[in-house]
């Protein structure tokens, strides 16, 4: 076994403890006596007692909520001004206060190598990782019974064999398995309690008014298993360095996601556009009540029996991907090297192990997309017109070419360039969220109903057969395309002195068919887009493209982006043998897109409280500088190695020689922002474009 077997092991443990002080306002017991009986019952059942830092009377709370008003009204009409109304609570939560997110974790790595002969070698690796984050790290509230933490239990194993047939032919193959098991944890009450909320503008000087619940969907988590096989062959033939390979990937996601398992109760305002929700405290009326039920095979408009039950929140989704590639590094001349190759990749369509649990919204047969949405319906995937969740996408061929040219044949001046194409598999929670579609799952949204202390509300009682109301949908376009990015670059590099180079580099990228999420069935879309009769007084006649369902959150591929940049680079190592090195880069770049992130995470900037585009059927309205655009950036990173005692072999030399001093210094321009207006929109927070420029807006059209 000598000189044949090599074994290595390592472990790392990490313990982080960090707290942050957070503030929230809580309704006082005195003001609770004025609330609607249903609200009082909710707070009695799920509330808890607190130590208050200070208390505001009703008059003081009104003044604090509207400091610009010289003659403010009390916060709660009908409650005496002197009544204690809101109390401030200071509480600690386990958060990153400078030392990292609180956790206890460890990982263990084992590696083994075995040489069967001078031509064949085996290697293997095993990694395990454990992490525990206390309740409050994932979601927190002053009502600590509802805090959410997380646990993670991961494994990874890899084994491979490398065989050398000759000096010019080598093959390598390996098989890998990984299991990522992330789960959120909380007390049982957090799973069974509805979430009661005020509106978005219900705050006092920026401090929220809190109620029991966090709005975090529980249960959440479960293992993701992946098995991957790779085989690569390297062959050197004269001036060519050839490489071929293939890959097969199987992913199995066994996840639970309790979307609306905890009913969301949004308290109603007094008038349209009131986003405080304060009036709902006293009327007991909810603006919206959203919960998940099991339709038991029914679709909206059909009858269901009561009491209703909650749906199955677990799914086991599978994906089958594969890829093949070939490339060549060709030494064309002593001055020119060319690299070229092609990769073909197939991304499999998501499917459940019980395929009747898969359902999606499919277009109808109308003329044009709008009419197809109107005529569309939901099917279980095997019974749909295409017999699966969405059509597979082929044609994902990725050519790449690059070159390096020694311009003067002296090794001091080079020109490099390249062009390539890449693709991205579908990702994110939207594809998983088709779990929320009937007939196995229904998200019910009711308006103007009473506050309830149960997750199913009135549907949880025996009230006889009822009609399943309109439900929201999570939809993946049945003809969704695979996003493509084309990228290109050109660089000129010059050695101006020993160990010192300067370079001018240009690069660009063009993204097409990028993933997006948008509501394609907004309220009023039927009137505006298909000419339904006028909505009339109080907008009572607002219609949707598809009347059977409410909002349809669609994952499509209409995103579009451009990026171009020029970079000036300077690099020196051991300048004039002083030990000083330095890298400096100045970049000018510009990003243009119509949607800067698939999930609209940057809504406060580019999306303006909007899910997706301003107009989901004309993304070009939103074309402009992207949220991630940083026009100019300068980065300098010096590094200095001390020159003394380098040749000293004594203890002093071992301790004091070759110390390095370094740093990174960055200067950059700011990112862009977008005008938006989220007022007077019935509290839905969908953007209403009201900014009127002095000149017409250029509209972009593309396919």
From TrEMBL:
Keywords from the UniProt entry: Cell outer membrane, Membrane, Receptor
Gene Ontology cellular component annotations, sorted alphabetically: cell outer membrane
Pfam families, per database record: OMP_b-brl_4
Subcellular location: Cell outer membrane
Domain TonB-dependent transporter Oar-like beta-barrel, residue spans: 1-692
Protein name in UniProt: TonB-dependent receptor
Source organism (scientific name): Tunturiibacter empetritectus
